[in-house]
Design brief:
alpha/beta; Rossmann fold; 5-stranded parallel sheet; 11 helices; 10% strand
């Protein structure tokens, strides 16, 4: 099995953007556990079958698809149900992540794992990177991106494990509160530690140019998708059960 670097953070911290840029720096493949979860929840997939046994019929549409909005509302209001859903989906998602990483046949794989610490996946990764941002920054990003009130944004943050606690558990912490160029500088240092043989061949000036080019390309994609506002950092968290 390859070495897996787990990247996590909190809603509004910008972990998706950081994950993709870090993968670009080292030239290593990147897995996204949110995408894996979506695959697992397709009709007749293992996660869908597991929830079909647990949930009542009104959690599914007429075509058999899982009503994610209804499930999200239900688990937000029912901690016991959330624990049951997590208990079914997390092992499946971890198993599939490891399987996909192995099939890639690369010595090192990055994996964006929103609930890495909450799900207790530390033993499944070699090193952990937490993408941090201050609460005020995260609130602004969530409100602008999702078009929600400050109260709703605060509830979304409060529903997660405190980002400060995640940072204390991490091998590396990236502060993504300020300008993207500042984040890039931190990522270059972390990249050298994670995969020095690759990054030693990349000139410092070329890395800066790559940061600017990547930032522009990422912003353009996000704006086209309607998910980025005022050049804000992007991190759309889609949990297994969401």
């Amino acid at each position: 099995m390859p070495e897996i670097i787990g990247i996590t953070g909190g809603i509004g911290s910008g972990k998706s953007r950081v994950s993709q840029y870090l993968a670009e720096l080292g030239g290593w493949p990147l897995l996204n556990v949110d995408q894996i979860c979506r695959q697992l929840l397709m009709p007749q997939a293992p996660g869908w079958l597991a929830l079909k046994e647990l949930l009542t019929a009104d959690f599914f549409t007429a075509t058999g698809e899982l009503d994610r909005k209804r499930l999200r509302e239900a688990i937000f209001a029912d901690a016991a149900l959330r624990q049951q859903v997590d208990g079914l989906l997390h092992p499946l998602a971890k198993q599939e992540m490891v399987a996909q990483a192995t099939r890639l046949a690369a010595p090192l794989v990055l994996a964006e794992i929103p609930l890495l610490f909450e799900a207790g996946w530390q033993d499944s990764v070699s090193q952990t990177v937490v993408v941090y941002a201050g609460e005020a920054v995260r609130l602004r990003r969530i409100m602008e991106r999702d078009q929600v009130s400050e109260e709703q944004a605060r509830r979304a943050i409060a529903a997660q494990m405190p980002l400060e606690d995640k940072a204390r558990l991490a091998d590396y912490v990236i502060d993504n509160s300020a300008a993207w160029e500042s984040t890039c500088a931190q990522l270059r240092q972390v990249a050298k530690k994670i995969y020095p043989s690759t990054c030693s061949t990349i000139g410092w000036g070329k890395q800066k140019d790559a940061c600017r080019s990547y930032s522009a390309a990422f912003s353009l994609i996000a704006i086209k998708q309607g998910t980025m506002h005022n050049n804000d950092h992007l991190s759309y968290q889609y949990r297994c059960q969401r």
